[in-house]
Amino acid sequence: MVNRLEAEARYIYNQVLQDDTPADLREEFRNSDILNRQSWLDESAVLKLTFYDSSGRQYGQAHPEAVHAADVQERNVPVDWDVMHSDEPFKIMKYWKLPGSHSQKPFHTDGLVPASLSFWWDMLRDTMKWRFDPSYELPSRQEIEQRFEKYGAKLLETSSTSEEELAGLDASVSLLRDNPAMRTASSDELAAGDRDAQLKVGLHWQAHTRPRRDHGDPHEVVMRTGILNMLQKSPKDFKPYDHVYEKYYNAFERLATASPDELAADPKLAKTHWLHGRFITRYNKEHKPEENIAFFHRPTQYNIEEWQASGRLAPDALGAALVASQVEVA
Questions:
Q1: Does residue 330 fall inside a structural domain?
Q2: DSSP 3-state helix, strand, coil percentages of the chain (rounded to 5)?
Q3: 132 inside domain
Q4: pLDDT for 79-92, tens place per residue?
Q5: Residue 137 is part of which domain span?
Q6: What is the pTM (predicted TM-score) of this model?
Q7: pLDDT tier, 1 (very low <50, low <70, confident <90, very high otherwise)
Q8: Is there a contact between 66 and 123 (Cβ–Cβ < 8 Å)?
Q9: CA-CA distance, 225 to 99, in Å (whole number)?
Q10: Does residue 60 belong to any structural domain of this protein?
């Protein structure tokens, strides 16, 4: 469903707690200065959406956080370092209630969700510091493992801390950590460099099914859903992470419009183009004909008709131009 993320906005921009959260903690959270700041709500939304978009494939989470950090710097948005340095967020995320698109508890993994959220809040803080402080370094593979253990995830015994996941995560972080040029790369460049990872996340969930409590599409590509939701909004109504979706939309649009000569001259771009084709083929195999797509990021005729019928499409939205041009029509 194209508008699922909007329907679940209260999970993104509010601290919706599990039913069994102790009353004294609820009161503590309500009275917390840090947890009531708009800057925390913004950054917690970024944390949640990178978590949802990667759908458990952690190699798909580090670079969107870096795109966000670069975008914040480029738009000259003040960073609330009090929030970034605070440990209070670690308390509340243990009790966050997940949206219906997630299983309440991933298989055999008590405590994995709060451990993963805590790890990725630390990574988001690291990424912001890395972007703004030239002397700050992202964690090594050893430090990554130590952090998971610190937050209660048993190494090699959970879906998020298998050797495959840890190796993929470290490889993703190392692209940022071990390449000095990435620290000052633009948000557009960072998003373009992450297309392969996002396509692999999408491919993974075509070959596998996501257990969901809301009985929604088990093969949903959440990054694509987020991009389509962004396309319907007026830019003046963008939340921080909508800017990230816009960067990925632009990156995939450049791929979609690459000429044969450009592909021939750029082997890396040609490989991404091939991977995109594989993703489209597998996605369409797992979805109804009216849901078939031609591009990772563009709306289909089906989406366009839904937008028009719903009345949610803002006149100045990026998607309004796509509706006018009927650009996709898979």
A1: no
A2: 65, 0, 35
A3: yes
A4: 999 999 999 999 99
A5: 4-325
A6: 0.93
A7: very low
A8: no
A9: 15
A10: yes
CA dist 130 → 62, 67, 136 (Å): 12, 12, 5
Whether residue 259 has pLDDT greater than 90: yes
Q: Name the more confident of 17 and 329.
A: 17
Q: Judge whether 189 lies within some domain.
A: yes
Contact 232, 254 (CB under 8 A): no
User: Would you say 44 and 118 are in contact if contact means Cβ atoms under 8 Å apart?
Assistant: no
Three-state secondary-structure class, residue 224: helix
The long-range contacts involving 281-285, CB below 8 angstroms and separated by at least 24 positions, are: 282/203, 282/206, 282/207, 283/202, 283/206, 283/219, 283/221, 284/330, 285/206
Diameter of the chain measured on Cα atoms: 64
3-state secondary structure of 312: coil
Provide CB contacts within 8 A for 19, sequence distance 6+.
97
User: What's the number of domains the chain is made of?
Assistant: 1
Amino acid at 188: D
Residues 176, 183: Cα–Cα separation, whole Å: 7
Whether the CA torsion 232, 53, 254, 328 is positive or negative: it is negative
Query: What is the spatial distance between Cα 210 and Cα 202, in angstroms, rounded to a whole number?
Result: 12
Which residue type sits at 277? G
d(CA 63, CA 43) in angstroms, rounded, equals 15
Residue 253 CB: number of other CB atoms within 10 A? 15
In whole angstroms, what is the distance from residue 313 CA to residue 229 CA?
9
